Amino acid sequence: MSGLSRRHFLVLAAVSGGGLAVGVAGRPAAARAGAANRLAPNPFVRVAADGTVTVVVKHLEMGQGVDTGLPVIVAEELCVPWSVVRVRQAPADAARYANLAFGKVQGTGGSTAMANSWRQLRLAAAAAREMLCQAGALRLGVPRAAVTARDGAVTHAATGRTLAYGQLVAAAAELPVPQDPPLKDPADFTLIGKEGAVGRSDSRVKSDGSAIFGLDIALPGLLTAVVARPPAFGAVLAHLDDRRAQSLPGVQAVFPIPSGVAVVADDTWSALAGRDALVLDWRDGPPAAGLSAADLSTGAIRDRFQALLAQPGRPARRDGDAEAALATAARRLTAVYEVPYLAHAPMEPLTCTVRLSSGRCEIWTGCQSQTADQAAAARAAGLAPTQVEINTLFAGGSFGRRANPTSDYVVEAVEIAKRADGPVRVMWTREDDIRGGYYRPFFLHGLEAGLDGAGRPVAWRHRLVGQSILAGTSRAATVKDGIDHTSVEGAADLPYAVPNLTVELHSPALPVPVLWWRSVGHSHTAFATECFLDELAAAAGADPVQFRRALLGDAHPRHRAVLDLAADKAGWGMPLPAGRGRGVAVHASFHSVVAEIAEVTVAADGGFTVDRVVCAVDCGLAVTPGIVRAQMEGGIVFGLSAALAGELTLDGGRVAQSNFHDYPVLRLSRMPDIEVHIVPSAAAPTGVGEPGVPPIAPAVANALFAATGRRVRRLPLGDRIQPI
Amino acid sequence: MISLVVNGERHKVAAPAEAPLLWVLRDALHLTGTRFGCGRGLCGACTVLVDGRPVRSCQLPVGQVDGRAVATIEGLRRDPQAGTAFAALNAAWIALDVPQCGYCQSGQLISATALLMANSHPDDAAITAALDGNLCRCGTYRRIRAAIHRAAAALAGAHP
Predict the structure, then answer these.
(1) Phi, psi of A601 (to 5 degrees)
(2) End-to-end alpha carbon distance in chain A
(3) Residue B157 Cα, gap to closest chain A Cα (Å)
């Protein structure tokens, strides 16, 4: 494909003015279908007179493949070759481009892109196809039923006469938009679900340097800004001496903003030098949650959370009577699992470019919450949301960081643009990113279980302690009865049949900003539940796969299918040499189910490697199997980075880590062999961006137990397990 | 003024000698394919070729590049020394859909190009050694390794 480069980003905004808003999901047709030289029957599909098809993508492309997977749906239903498809990012517009899984806001997250677009885009493309077929039949003077759509053309089967779509767009645009167009029979799919049928639409621009990210925008008079933010959470600025910074060449302005002190310069190096030259006196913030700023350390947080573990929390699930069943169980097991704060650390640090002019605010960024960011930018700029234009660029990763209910980095950029003498791009350095908060929260999980005389679990009590992501945000209303569902997802919906089961939550408030991080609650609940289940299997003397299968029963066929597939492909049960071990975990998240089996080798000194990971996924119909595989691989690598080495620690409210030397991520040399197997399915597509993450940490920890007999209950695992 | 030869073209740039090459390439020459990732030489996103060797441009003061040949991702295809290797790698990257977010891939491709220029048949260990300093958060490592093997095979004539 060609012509996909986002260098033409300025053109993309034109999409917002073009076409007519015509409902695709059952709403009545409001108008006819568009200008004469193209067919634009809805907000998503444009067919041009040259036969090219432009698909408007409402989601952020951050690596997960929406700029390919979503256009493939259109190409399939419209019956055009992949080579004629072009991709554009939608403007911010909740009326046309809302995420149907989120309600009335536009945004990307929760592994919803494919699931919420699947039927919407099929209908949108099918409507365009029907209009073209109708126009073709009229032109040929034959009934609609006598023509078929194929390969970007309408063909009269009886005579072989063919009209290319491009010849028909003007006539088709005059026809009413069908509200309930027939969808293609999946048996006739040639692109969807087919291995190798399409390549990623963005591979070319991402393999020659031409892909445009937030720092790459060129605007006349563009300035660069960096911000000196508080060195400790809650700290406030007591004194600023900017005389030296102001005197440096290239530095244009220094001024305080709500999030810190902004340094605006002609270029990046001058901005960084200016920030280094600031003399800043920060004071500790007020005590919060019973901890003084000086006490805001990882050790103090752990102690406080451990005290809460001893107390009942708010119930998130209660089946039977776990306390009574524990009291009478033949055997009881207890364990505490711990996971640290984690930064998202996408390869592209946060950036945002803003141009303010009278009555207008233009924003360029890898925007993950277009309409929320638009509204927040409008408030900051003193404008109406319609006066804020969001240009969504590629994001160099996000993993949740760019979808912030506070729109922190966008609002900050607008605050700087209000005072800067021209358009400005705000750049976060890696240190700003690692130390800037909005972390996966630190969590403790206390688990206690009872087995009967036959080794069957009769009681399960799971107590979680960790900060709420949603409390205090614009989405706080989704916290019901004190339960933030993102804290307990994957724990409160434990699939295993245990008759007496309690899940309880403590959500202590701390002045450390937390946020969703690829797979959100599942990123820690799977570690606790799947490791503890493994402990029960060992106590019962059962095989970990068989123990799970028995407890899943017939109620969870998708779990069993991925478990069986992974076990089969991994050679589960085949003997391994001494020092090696296999571990399994299975976990459902974002409506998909993934099983992973890890193989580790442990040396005599305890040093270990993860050699191989076999993954089986049921994500419904895999629209683009190559991307599903890539997302599973990526999820495993992301989860493995955290499991092995990811950890942020606090000391006096300050984050100890700052860059990739002390917040390491997985490198090629520690990359295991990864195999991904996709369960064949005709069901509607479900999530793939996140579900690969949760099982890897417990699979590795369980493999280490299999190899050594030692349980590791705190992440990260490091690169060495203490020998017994 | 500092004199730079970038992708075969001579430029005179008004920049302090201690400014990293990365910011001169990006801000002064508008060669934005070279990415900023860490600013400490820890991630490899800013890798360029200087006299044919891979270098972290965020750590290289532009004053030290005076008169030396710099190649960035934008110029590799027509680079007389690196062009053949890069073209094969670029084709393999696209064929195997290596990129996800894509942000690290310029650096990955530059390191891989330097590897193939020095070693036309790298084994897995050589690939690991050459690219271990290039981080990827999306986890494209498996495909990067496969694409380098594919490019090497193509250069050797196995894949016409």
Answers:
(1) -120, 125
(2) 57
(3) 22
Q: What is the percent of chain A where pLDDT is above 90?
A: 91
Q: Which residue carries 């993993």 as its tokens? A: A399
Would you state the structure tokens that stand for residue B37, as one six-digit string? 């990732």
Q: Among A226, B26, A603, which Cα is nearest to B36's?
A: B26
Residue A23 has pLDDT above 70, yes or no: no
Q: pLDDT tens digits for A450-483? A: 999 999 999 999 999 999 999 988 888 889 999 9
Looking at residue B159, what is its pLDDT?
A: 46
Cα–Cα dist A422/A424, whole Å: 6
- Same CATH topology for A6-188 and A214-284+350-427: the answer is yes
**Does the predicted interface ipTM exceed a cut of 0.85?**
yes
Cis peptide upstream of residue A544 (ω within 30 degrees of 0): no
Tell which B residues from 3 to 32 touch A, by Cβ distance under 8 Å.
15-16, 19-20, 23, 26-28, 30-32
Interchain pair A394, B38: CB under 8 A: no
Is the Cβ pair B74, A661 closer than 8 Å?
A: no
- Into which CATH architecture does domain A6-188 fall? 2-Layer Sandwich (3.30)
**How close B50 gets to chain A, by Cα (Å)?**
17
Whats the size of chain B, residue-wise?
160
- B159 vs A: CB within 8 A: no
**Per-residue pLDDT, A710:** 96
User: In sequence order, which ranges of B2-157 are alpha helices (DSSP H)?
Assistant: 21-23, 83-95, 105-118, 124-131, 141-155
Instruction: Determine the pLDDT at residue A323.
Output: 97
CB A465 within 8 A of CB A423: no
Determine the Cα–Cα distance for residues A495 and A413; give it in Å rounded to an integer.
Answer: 44
- To 5 degrees, how large is the angle CA A406–CA A412–CA A415? 125
Nearest to A216 among B32, B136, B143 (CB): B32
Sheet containing strand A223-228, edge to edge, reads A251-257, A260-265, A223-228, A424-427, A351-357, A360-365, A388-392
- A214-284+350-427: what CATH class? alpha beta
Q: Are B21 and B51 in contact (CB under 8 A)?
A: no
- Domain locations in chain A? 6-188, 214-284+350-427, 298-341+439-708
Residue B139 sits at the chain A interface (C-beta within 8 Å): yes
pTM as predicted = 0.94
Instruction: Give the pLDDT score at A21.
Output: 29
What does DSSP say about strands A279-283 and A236-241: parallel, antiparallel, or unpaired? antiparallel
Q: Which of B35, B90, B132 sits opposite A669 (nearest CB)?
A: B132
Q: Within an 8 Å CB–CB cutoff, is residue B113 touching chain A?
A: no
CA distance A414 to A402: 16
**Nearest of A345, A399, A259 to residue A659 by alpha carbon:** A345
> Is residue A45 within 8 Å of residue A86, measured between CB atoms?
no
In CATH, what is the architecture of A298-341+439-708? 2-Layer Sandwich (3.30)
B-chain CB neighbours of A666 within 8 Å are: 139, 141
Residue A412 has pLDDT above 90, yes or no: yes
**Which residue segments constitute the domains of chain B, with CATH numbers given?**
2-72 (3.10.20.30), 77-155 (1.10.150.120)
- Most B CBs within 10 Å: which of A62, A198, A205, A207, as the mutation test of the B interface? A207
Query: Which residue does chain A place closest to B77, by CA atoms?
Result: A208
